[in-house]
Design brief:
The complex is a heterotrimer of chains A (290), B (189) and C (361).
Chain A (H helix, E strand, L loop, with lengths): L10 H16 L5 E2 L13 H10 L5 E6 L6 H14 L2 E2 L8 E5 L12 E5 L13 H10 L3 H14 L10 E3 L3 E3 L9 H4 L5 E6 L4 E5 L5 E3 L26 E5 L6 E5 L2 H9 L16
Parallel strand pairs in A: 2-3, 2-4, 4-5, 5-8
Antiparallel strand pairs in A: 1-9, 6-7, 6-10, 8-9, 11-12
Chain B lengths: L1 H5 L6 H17 L5 E2 L11 H10 L6 E3 L6 H10 L12 E5 H4 L18 E5 L8 E4 L7 E3 L5 H8 L6 E6 L2 E5 L4 E3 L2
Parallel strand pairs in B: 2-3, 3-4, 4-7
Antiparallel strand pairs in B: 1-8, 5-6, 5-9, 7-8
Chain C lengths: L7 H17 L9 H7 L1 H11 L4 H10 L4 H12 L17 E6 L25 H4 L21 H7 L27 H9 L3 H12 L8 E16 L4 E20 L7 E10 L3 H14 L16 H7 L2 H9 L6 H25 L1
Antiparallel strand pairs in C: 1-2, 2-3, 3-4
Helix pairs in contact in C: 2-4, 3-4, 3-5, 4-5, 8-10, 9-10
Chain lengths: 290, 189, 361
């Protein structure tokens, strides 16, 4: 731990990231350029989230890291170990006990509180990127609030498929101004972005952007009056804890292609089983599961 | 003076800087909320809170404007030693420090460009009094409504009307600090 | 009954242990030393220094050893290390006119002051496997050493410049931007472009440069000059009030002479492209010069032919192999949450399409 500065980054770098975070909070949904540093983990593996977390961490924090909703996925484990080593912070898998949560692709099922910060890892921060590959063009579109291209794309979806065919990284409008990519969370999670008591920070390392949602920001998923946004999930209950309202992963369990559905949020599932809930395929909760 | 110039920084910069930033971030994210900042001991007349902001956010890349009584040799020396931030006129400032009266008029500061609205100044305002009472605040970061003892209403309304361009504010009184981003709508209490 | 898989932590530990074992290979074979890599794999060391943006042959050799010879992985190790280093300041621009040239050739003149110096090049080797090297005997006898030329070696482009035949490159005042300390802003200045190219992936630049030769924004390049050698790195110390020499770095510099431009008001002039890279890295330096030249179409009043090498945003945003490899390889990470949302969507669309067909029948 003594070989590196607290939370790895040098103080000058942290100051630069901190200034970007404050401007991001002041202009919700706008992507603030920042001089992302090379981290000891690859671009695309959470370097943006890691830099934002490093700039925010205090020794009193209790850190939770999830990937796909799970605490023990390999990349989540790797990032958690990085901060245990470089910042010496306490860690937890329990959402309720965490003061700072770094996530890739999910928002925890348990509602967040004012005492928590949620840091998202973002691969492509620009919601218009797949419609217009040029940064020079998309920057103009945001400046002019020219989001027609996005509506055209969504409308073409409807005319081809009868519905908007974006299932994750579903674009949102923040406080009636900036269109924002919520990172590749399933659209099931989109409603949790809005009116959230926690600070939400988004870090894209390779693309050198930081953006933010202050608490209680109004975040609306783009849609049409006759085709309203719908947060969807698999039409099933969790096989382990029986939850009918959490986002589910599909798991193939035998060679014949038999499948069950289980909670993507592993801590949510654990807490429900600890509270006595049991799904069709679940084993009664034991302490060793924790 | 030499001694004062070299002292007054953070004893443990990485850790104290982190705590100060968390407080500043909470203040900026939740307009009306008052946070406490400890650790910095800048020369008078700069407050502990404003000193903490300087130590945590200012560096060689961030030109700073010192308005009114804050533009003194002691503070210039302290800032140069602890942050390396160059002292400039208001037009070029990324951060400006001073009392509300000394900082006025607001027209001189950078408010960003349509392409880069983040390239705008943050004003760090020294206050005689800072309470979660007075003007009524609504907007992002606020559940319903909050209140803050702001020096006036008009300037903040005009600033918010220019969104996404505009200035952002940090108000300091002793070791206490509150934030007001450009998104906040201010009304007389 | 179903029990969810766990154990990410143990899997990682085991993978790391296995990786270390594989890196070492057969323990009956002596271990490679960092010094051996530094001395005998010099071109690999040079590439890692160039794309890693850190001039340190020892660390570069260490990175190659640690990366099991995967040069992009070695570049990554160096990049991650260099960002943690404190910055003391900026040096004076190096003067390649004072280079102690090991190699210096010009394709545009038969001879020039300073001479054609072939140096340690593969150029005229016959690419036949040398089985004598496999025998691991004593190496070849040392090469005979020519007396080093005293004094500076003038740039070939300078001779053309004296006649006004080549477009001048006036010195630019002010501190150039630093790619490693600020985010890329487009359109980029030439200084920023050259920085990005200098640390860009050799393979990517090679392909782009080749495309310009095959007609995608062809600008007909001659190698005006290619030189490789050591130059002094100097820094002005304000406290001392004078400049001190910090040491030397070996650089490869390539200046191309390209097709001329001109107009009714301006007489025709040759144009140029520029490459400057750490170490002996001539393929990279030549490729850099060609791509630099292709990117200058706007400055030189040429038309945009829509060629990849002319597209600044395309080139600069994709030439960094550390960014590219990270993002490419991140698709190995679990994406099952997103995939699940797509699965549900596609099932729903197929269901609705099926219902639509039934209703129609």
């Amino acid at each position: 731990m003594s070989e590196y500065n607290f939370a790895y980054l040098d103080e000058e770098t942290k100051r630069m990231i901190r200034r970007a975070i404050l401007k991001a909070l002041a202009i919700p949904g706008y992507q603030v350029p920042f001089a992302s540093r090379e981290m000891p983990m690859p671009y695309g593996w959470g370097t943006g989230g890691v830099q934002v977390t490093a700039a925010c961490l205090i020794p009193e924090d209790r850190l939770k890291v999830i990937d796909q909703g799970a605490d023990d996925t390999t990349n989540a484990v790797s990032i958690r170990q990085f901060f245990e080593k470089t910042a010496g912070v306490a860690v937890t898998e329990e959402t309720a006990r965490a003061s700072l949560i770094q996530t890739r692709h999910r928002i925890p099922e348990m509602p967040l509180t004012e005492d928590q910060i949620l840091v998202y890892q973002v691969p492509i921060p620009e919601p218009l990127r797949f419609l217009e590959p040029r940064e020079t063009e998309t920057r103009k579109m945001h400046a002019l609030e020219e989001y027609g291209l996005m509506h055209v794309k969504l409308y073409e979806d409807i005319s081809r498929h009868g519905t908007i065919s974006t299932a994750y990284a579903y674009p949102v409008r923040v406080e009636g101004r900036y269109v924002m990519d919520p990172s590749p969370i399933p659209k099931f999670d989109n409603p949790k972005l809005s009116d959230c008591p926690a600070i939400q920070l988004f870090g894209a390392g390779r693309e050198q952007r930081i953006y933010a949602l202050p608490p209680y920001s109004r975040v609306v998923s783009l849609d049409f009056e006759d085709h309203p946004f719908e947060a969807s999930k698999a039409d099933a209950d969790c096989a382990l804890c029986g939850a009918g309202d959490s986002y589910l992963d599909e798991v193939i369990v035998d060679d014949a292609g038999g499948r069950i559905f289980v909670c993507s949020d592993t801590d949510h599932c654990r807490a429900r089983r600890a509270a006595g809930h049991l799904g069709a395929e679940g084993a009664p909760y034991e302490e060793a599961d924790a | 003076m030499e001694v004062q110039l070299l002292s007054g920084g953070f004893a443990d910069a990485p850790v104290e800087g982190a705590r100060v930033f968390r407080a500043v971030m909470q203040a900026m994210a939740r307009p009306g909320r008052i946070e406490r900042l400890e650790g910095a001991r800048p020369p008078a007349p700069m407050s502990v809170a404003a000193g903490g902001v300087a130590l945590t956010l200012c560096g060689p890349d961030t030109p700073v404007h010192l308005a009114g009584a804050l533009d003194c040799a002691e503070l210039r020396g302290w800032l140069a030693f602890h942050t390396g931030a160059p002292v400039v006129g208001r037009e070029a400032a990324v951060f400006a420090f001073g009392t509300w009266e000394a900082l006025l008029p607001l027209s001189g500061y950078a408010i960003g460009t349509p392409d880069y609205p983040d390239r705008s100044a943050t004003l760090v305002v020294e206050m005689d009094r800072l309470e979660a009472a007075g003007m009524r605040l609504t907007g992002p970061g606020i559940a319903g409504m909050s209140a803050l003892s702001l020096p006036e209403v008009t300037a903040f309304r005009a600033n918010a009307a220019r969104f996404p361009l505009g200035l952002d504010f940090l108000f300091c009184c002793g070791d206490r600090l509150a934030g007001l981003p450009r998104t906040t709508r201010v009304e007389a209490g | 009954m179903y029990v969810a898989v766990k154990g990410g932590e143990r899997a990682i530990d085991n993978a790391h242990a296995w990786l270390a074992e594989e890196r070492r290979g057969d323990r009956d074979v002596p271990e490679l030393s960092v010094a051996q890599i530094r001395e005998q794999m010099t071109l690999a060391v040079n590439r890692v220094m160039a794309e890693g943006s850190l001039y340190d042959p020892d660390l570069s050799a260490l990175a190659i050893k640690q990366a099991r010879g995967d040069l992009i992985e070695a570049v990554f190790l160096i990049r991650a290390y260099r960002t943690t280093l404190p910055r003391f300041g900026a040096t004076q621009p190096v003067d390649t006119g004072t280079m102690r040239c090991e190699r210096r050739i010009s394709a545009t003149f038969k001879d020039a002051p300073g001479g054609q110096v072939l140096g340690p090049t593969f150029d005229y080797t016959h690419r036949l496997l040398d089985f004598a090297l496999a025998a691991e005997g004593e190496g070849p006898a040392p090469a005979s050493e020519a007396p080093a030329r005293a004094g500076d070696v003038p740039h070939v482009a300078g001779f053309l410049g004296r006649e006004g035949l080549i477009q001048p490159e006036p010195p630019v005042d002010g501190v150039p931007p630093d790619l490693t300390r600020q985010s890329m802003e487009l359109p980029a200045s030439r200084a920023l472009r050259l920085q990005a190219l200098a640390r860009g992936d050799e393979g990517f630049l090679l392909g782009l440069a080749y495309s310009t030769q095959r007609g995608y924004a062809r600008n007909h390049a001659f190698v005006g000059e290619l030189r490789i050698g050591a130059v002094a790195v100097e820094m002005e110390i304000p406290e001392l009030g004078f400049t001190i020499e910090l040491g030397e770095v070996v650089l490869t510099e390539c200046e191309t002479v390209n097709q001329f431009t001109g107009s009714k008001t301006e007489p025709p002039q040759f144009t140029r492209g520029y490459g400057l890279v750490f170490g002996q890295t001539e393929r990279k330096a030549i490729a850099m010069a060609l791509v630099d030249r292709a990117l200058r179409w706007k400055d030189l009043g040429e038309e945009d032919r829509g060629a990849p090498a002319q597209d600044e945003e395309f080139v600069l945003m994709h030439c960094d192999n550390i960014q590219a490899t990270g993002f490419l390889e991140h698709i190995k990470l679990p994406h099952y949450v997103d995939f699940q949302s797509e699965l549900e969507l596609i099932r729903k669309l197929r269901r609705e399409a099926g219902e639509g067909r039934e209703a129609a029948e």
